[in-house]
Amino acid sequence: MKKIIINRLGLLIFVVFGVTLISFLLSHVIPGDPARMMVGQRANEETLQQVRQQLGLDQPLLIQYETYMKGIISGDLGTSIRTQKPVIDDLEAFFPATMELAIIAFIFALVIGIPLGVLAAVKKNSFWDHASRIFSIGGVSTPVFWSGLVIILIFYGYLNWFPANGRLDMNIHPPTHITGLYILDSLLSGDMVALKSSLHHILLPAIVLSYAQLAVITRQVRASMLEIMEQEYIRTAIANGIHGPFLFFRYALRNALIPTITVVGISFGSLLGGAVVTETIFGWPGMGKYVVDSIAYLDFPAMMGFTLLIAVGYVIINLIVDLTYYVLDPQIKG
Amino acid sequence: MVLEMKDLCVDFTGMRGKVRALRNVSLSIEKGEVLGVVGESGSGKSVTALSILGLLGSNATISNGEISYLGQNLLRLGPKEMQSLRGKKIGMVFQEPMTALHPTMKVGSQLAEVIKRHRGLSKKQAHKLAVEALKEVHIHDPELVAKKYPFELSGGMRQRIVIALAMSAPPDLLIADEPTTALDVTIQKEILQLIKELNDKRGTSVLLITHDLGVVSSVCDRVMVMYAGEVVEEGKTEEVLNAPSHPYTEALLHALPDLADPEEPLKAIPGEVPDLQNRPAGCAFASRCPKAMDICGVSVPALEPVSKNRSAACWLRRDTY
Ligand SMILES: Nc1ncnc2c1ncn2[C@@H]1O[C@H](COP(=O)(O)OP(=O)(O)OP(=O)(O)O)[C@@H](O)[C@H]1O
Ligand code: SF4
Ligand SMILES: [Mg+2]
């Protein structure tokens, strides 16, 4: 267990180094001048140079990178060109919204995807299997911007059952800030009004965001369930009178989940990444929206901060995946 | 009669079409009796065993025959009734103890789940009985073993646990499909002793599949010899082994390693088992039989009594009884 954690934390250092280096270099080869963006087309050369100096853009590349890395070590990701605030503060403000959306979408994907995969495997080649296959193909082949718009059109446009914008109704105050996750915060502070409104707002974007992952999880669970059901220990269990849901969930699913975990881990990473589009469609004030706005503004510190955060997120998810393996499979020691 | 099988025919549908794996197989087991089933690989021993508990795969069809357990026709049972029979009335032990147990469940929990199911007990009571069950199969320190995962145990230990699982109800009939083949010789003896002991103590009937005639002679009351999906000889163990009626049984005995002279290489039966897909007309053993006659290649000999306690399917034995 310790070995796994130390291993992954060692990896983290490499990832941080690699990702910052690449994103740093990229930000300097991409044509476009952030200083020019800031001062506008009509500013004169003098002002431009002044701003360059302020941003440190006049320094040699290596010095700039060194300054940036030093900052990261002390927890400073630079200052956003667009918002003029420290990037770390901006991420802190927007990250919880993205995290909340990704978590809820993830829960949907698991809670629906796993039983659907089991059902498809147990009733192989039946109506349920085919239905789940079509549903899954829909999931992986429908782009989020399309399914998002269709869902908004139906549930907001025609039916008007759900809102299509933001995290809360306009007239409702956010719950007391504890974690920044509105659902959790409103539960913790007993704010039922905020809870109801935030659940109401998160449902549509979470469904849209989860659909593609749900499909992947369903297919993976089905495939590994079919494999496990062929194993001899399942035959022993059946010969000993174990049957029905108990056999599928207690005996088979547990082991079918082991190969599924990697897929699930990657899936959560994709959720964080995929949130960019979903957030834009649903006006969700998360990091996705923040980064899209930053790109439009050539706000390199903000983009690099976001990239770094996602990369670190992936490493942490990998760590969680490894630890879950450890818990599910007693044969992995050390 | 605990179990009776009559004229069972089983077909497998595969890529090359239909194959008849069992042809008119009949057998019966009395209460407390140990029936041995022997035959070369592919002779249909496992298919016979699996058909009893309805564990044949979806590519199998039972096209003829009857299997009755205490007078109840098993082939007419619905899935629910069959499930409640498995493990509870008829237990089964498989050949490969390394893969027969759930790899990520502690052995105590596996036993407890099955016991809970058979006897409708609480989790706690079931766990207590699980430890008892481990003691019954002579596992020292059962409390400790109950907390182990299969991969932490030896093959012999695992097979004891598989037997404990199959015997937990306890069932009236235990089917053991080559329970010792995968084990070391010394462990084989212990496992056989254990099965024999459970049979003596509880009166459980046993269907013991093996390809080892030594095993048959040490534990079986009666023996049934199978060849190419058919029963060729059946009778009391001493009688069959001392004076085989069927040339195939004779050949099997001949191929037995000579214990007095371990240097001598194993004698294999010359020739090959016929391809079930293209079963020859007449006696299936004819191509390898040293005593084959004209009629053997033309017409199939039926399994018929040749003496008081014995049946054989061979043209040589017709009209002798
Ligand atoms: N699931 C299956 N699908 C197709 N054919 C099968 C299947 N199971 C068994 N058979 C066929 O049935 C025949 C009998 O097989 P069976 O497993 O009963 O042999 P066996 O006597 O148990 O042999 P062994 O000593 O190797 O265990 C074989 O020819 C085999 O090819
Ligand atoms: S019937 Fe003929 S071929 Fe078959 S075993 Fe008897 S003698 Fe041999
Ligand atoms: Mg077999």
TrEMBL record, chain A:
Taxonomic lineage of the native organism: Bacteria, Bacillati, Bacillota, Bacilli, Bacillales
A Pfam family that this protein carries is: BPD_transp_1_N
Entry-linked Gene3D superfamilies: MetI-like
**Residues annotated as domain ABC transmembrane type-1:** 95-321
* Membrane-crossing segments per the record: 9-30, 101-122, 134-159, 198-217, 256-282, 302-328
Give the family this protein belongs to, as stated in its UniProt record.
Belongs to the binding-protein-dependent transport system permease family.
Q: Which UniProt keywords apply?
A: Cell membrane, Membrane, Transmembrane, Transmembrane helix, Transport
In Swiss-Prot or TrEMBL terms, this protein is called ABC transporter permease
Q: To which species is this protein native?
A: Fictibacillus fluitans
Cross-referenced CDD domains, in alphabetical order?
Answer: TM_PBP2 (cd06261)
Highest taxon above the source species: Bacteria
Provide the protein's localization.
Answer: Cell membrane
Topology of the protein relative to the lipid bilayer: Multi-pass membrane protein
UniProtKB/TrEMBL annotation, chain B:
For this protein, the record's SMART domains field holds: AAA
InterPro entries cross-referenced by the UniProt entry: AAA+_ATPase (IPR003593), ABC_Ni/Peptide_Import (IPR050388), ABC_transporter-like_ATP-bd (IPR003439), ABC_transporter-like_CS (IPR017871), Oligopep_ABC_C (IPR013563), P-loop_NTPase (IPR027417)
- Where does it localize? Cell membrane
What's the superkingdom here? Bacteria
NCBIfam families reported for this sequence: oligo_HPY (TIGR01727)
Family label: Belongs to the ABC transporter superfamily.
Protein name stated in the entry? ABC transporter ATP-binding protein
Q: Which organism is it from?
A: Fictibacillus fluitans
